[in-house]
Amino acid sequence: MLQDHSGHGRTPAAADPALIRACLDRILASAEFERAGRVRLLLEFLVRQCLEGQSDGLKESLIGVEVFGRDPGYDPKAEPVVRVTAGRLRAKLEAYYEREGLRDAVRIAIPKGGYVPTFETLRTEPAEAAVPARPRRGARFAAGAAILLLAAAAAALKLAGTSSPPAFDNLRPFVTGKGAPTHPSFSPSGDTLAFEWEGPGDRFINVYLQRLDSSSPVRFTHDDANSTWPVWSKDGREIAFLRQLSPVRMAIVSVPLSGAGERVWTEVEKGDMDRPRLDWSPDGTWFATAQRVGGIQSILLFSRSTGERRVLTRTPAGWRGDSEPVFTPDGKQVAFRRTQPASGLEDIYIVPVTGGEPRRLTFDNRPISALVFTPDGGLVFSSKRAGTIRGLWWLPPGGGRLRRLTSTAVDAGSPAVSRDGRHVAFVKVLFDTDIWRADTGSAAASPASLIASDLPDSSPQFSPDGRRIAFLSSRDGAPEIWTCDARGANSVRLTNAAGAAVGLPQWSPDGQSIAFESYPKGQAEIHVAPAAGGPERTLVSGAYDNTVPRWSADGRAIYFASNRAGRMQLWRINLGDRSESLVVDDGYAATESRDGRTLYFTRRSGPGIWRVALANGWPGGDPVRVLPDARQDWGSAALGSKGLYYLQLGGGFPIRYLDFATGESRTLFTPKGQPLWRGAELAISPDERTILYTVVEKDGLNIFVR
After folding, report:
1. pLDDT-based confidence at residue 6 (cuts at 50, 70, 90)
2. What count of other Cβ atoms lies within 10 Å of the Cβ of residue 67?
3. Which residue from 361, 478, 495, 642 has the least number of CB within 10 angstroms?
4. Which one has a higher pLDDT value, 32 or 183?
5. Could you give the maximum distance between any two Cα atoms of the chain, in Å?
6. Distance CA 329, CA 41 (A)
């Protein structure tokens, strides 16, 4: 019997751990929690800590570090992610027990004022626990079984000795040249790193070798085609890699370190996701990669001895596919990434090399970029499970609590671990954008950095009175909407998206609200939040994308793009009765003139900005294209009272002004550095004296090693 640690002085009757685990499995596999992201992580962590007798340590600061990847010593008052997510968890548990959990054996609750779960026994047997309330492709039974197996394995590990995660700190930059070196792979001896890089003077991506005690990389391939994903043979005498033959075909090639005796083993047709990964089994008998099968990318094994091509996975119909295969240290299983349709959200699965039903290892529904096993069977993977900044995470051997290995300020991918575990490496993404300002009336334009941090800041928009700016920033490790004053000071975070992507903030005409797009469940939704802070509300949602919100001039409606009909269309929602109406069939991003008489919009089908007169709020007449070269998302233009400010794509990327009266354009200035033009990266102040734009400050990769 479990004792209740909540402080309420109640001991749950017959709170059997097996029943609690079965109930937890059902909850995690339910429709209510299936795509709940951080809420799922928090629930599983709290329950498992309690079952392991660790409930006394369930404090807000600990949870922030262990579950949400915050750095030790962070201030929970300034970052209330634990409290906010716990509130959502309580609401979801209530909703679950009102519907899918009516017949559950145990009721799990998180009392307000703390984080220690309580367990109330409602029945003495599980409520048909193997059958989830709503069937789902893959196998929810497999998900539940996986958690039970992981829990049992974790208990065994606790008895045998706890495994420690590899240390990804105090690493040093490895490649000294410019470019984007990536996909590092340690030699069996651990003293040399193979990686792919388009080095100085190269025409293609090549495989390079560099000793850990050297600063001089040596090109291994011949610069005659893209050569990617190098892997070592078990004896370290050969390197295999993928050679690109065409945009859709790759060859598995191996070359001895001597350089003589190249062998092409087989060809594969890649899917529509990204470049397939290559791995070599520990015993040297199999290659693993991804191959298009029936139009969908699946995991393929190729036997070096027999030439057998074994399709290891069959991706469920409608899914995007499987990729990133990597062998377990004993070579008996292959872990891989499975990607959901439309949303592109991902999790890690594992399957025996002999075939069978894949078993799910993670339940994050977050993008994953790479994975690698440690010598003891632990799994290190790169994921956006705590935001849009990729971090490295560790899953202990046999399962258990995930632990973050890198700082929230480091965008980390492509981890590598030497076979003896002494050396580690990863690829750090060196990308940062800042918001700049310039005076439109000055010939010199007086450009200056206005809003900057160590992580990307973008999408600036002036408030209607010009006193404040809304912008998108990842400065605290995840993308959020922020506001600051016109000087770029006094920044305040507006949203708490708990890791979900957000973007494209837009002020209401009265300056009281900010609309933006949010992806809490994978699909884009239109949300609105008070500009002064407070709870946001969902305005438009559904099983499709709703994006690019723009207010009408009178503030009574919001335009948005939606693919509910299978293609992007321009819609509008009336904020009074919440009615939604189709505005332009082939429309995308829209902005009304300040007097509300004209609608300017883009089309998803091609570049340009169109103009059409509005009659009683509706387009009348045929649209006229006023700017032929503009992005479909309106990211390169800002509407003024008598003209259009826009970023010319190409030719140095000057910022220009189109005068509607004369039809003539003139260059205002050319930004210093590389401007960013996706999303909403250009803004003009209400008095049209100041323009804001986003500049790419850093863009590259480097391998860090220890």
Report:
1. very low
2. 22
3. 642
4. 183
5. 82
6. 27
Q: How far is CA 685 from CA 8, 142, 468, 494, in A?
A: 56, 55, 10, 21
pTM (2 d.p.):
0.61
The residue-averaged pLDDT of 11-40 equals 73
By the 10 Å C-beta count (0-12 exposed, 13-18 middle, 19+ buried), 565 is classed as: exposed
Cβ-contact 523, 535 below 8 angstroms:
no
**Angle, nearest 10°, between helix axes 81-98 and 38-51?**
90
373 and 335 Cβ atoms separated by less than 8 Å: yes
For Cα atoms 60, 63, 65, give the angle at the middle one, nearest 5 degrees: 110
433, 693 contact by CB (below 8 A): no
DSSP string, 619-660: EEEEEEEEESS--TTSTTEEE-SSEEEEE-SSTT--EEEEET
Cα 226 vs. chain centroid, distance in angstroms?
26
Measured from the Cβ of residue 375, the count of other Cβ atoms closer than 10 Å reads 14
CB-CB neighbours of 576 under 10 Å: 8
Provide the residue ranges of all domains of the chain, joining segments of one domain with +.
17-160, 176-269, 450-643+672-697
pLDDT for position 442: 63
Among the four given CATH numbers 3.30.420.310, 3.90.650.10, 2.120.10.30, 2.40.30.20, the one describing domain 176-269: 2.120.10.30
Contacts of 463 by beta carbon, 8 Å cutoff, 6+ apart: 469, 470, 507, 511, 531
Q: Is residue 8's pLDDT more than 70?
A: no
| Residue bearing the bigger pLDDT, 203 or 444 | 203
Closest CA to 307 of 264, 370, 355: 264
Q: Which of 561, 569, 557, 463 is nearest to 517 (CA)?
A: 561
Query: In this predicted structure, what is the pLDDT of residue 376?
Result: 93
φ, ψ of residue 157 in degrees (nearest 5): -65, -35
Q: Which residues lie below 8 Å from residue 348, measured CB to CB, with a gap of 6+?
A: 335, 336, 337, 338, 360, 361, 362, 368, 371, 379, 381, 395
d(CA 585, CA 477): 38
- Amino acid identity of residue 51, one-letter, is L
Q: Which CATH superfamily is domain 450-643+672-697 in?
A: TolB, C-terminal domain (2.120.10.30)
User: How far is Cα 333 from Cα 324, in angstroms, rounded to an integer?
Assistant: 13
SS (H, E, C) 397-421: CCCCCCEECCCCCCCEEEEEECCCC
Tell me 599's DSSP state.
E
pLDDT reported for residue 97: 82
Which two tokens mark 685? 């102040």
| CA distance linking residue 378 with residue 162, whole number of Å | 11
Q: How confident is the model at residue 13 (pLDDT cuts 50, 70, 90)?
A: very low
Q: Is 109:89 a contact under the CB 8 Å cutoff? A: no
pLDDT digits (tens, 9 = 90+) for 564-603: 998 899 999 999 999 999 999 989 999 999 999 999 999 8
Distance in angstroms (rounded) separating the CA atoms of residues 260 and 258: 6
Q: Where is mean pLDDT largest: 127-136, 232-241, 254-263, 643-652?
A: 232-241
d(CA 624, CA 296): 41
pLDDT at residue 350 is higher than 90: yes
d(CA 366, CA 388): 9
- Among 110-114, 146-150, 162-166, 488-492, top mean pLDDT goes to 488-492
CA angle, 349 as apex, 106 and 92 as ends, to 5°? 35
Nearest-angstrom CA–CA distance, 70 and 312 = 38
CA distances from 254 to 68, 134, 459, 563, 570 (A): 41, 47, 46, 45, 51
Q: Which residue has the higher pLDDT, 528 or 441?
A: 528
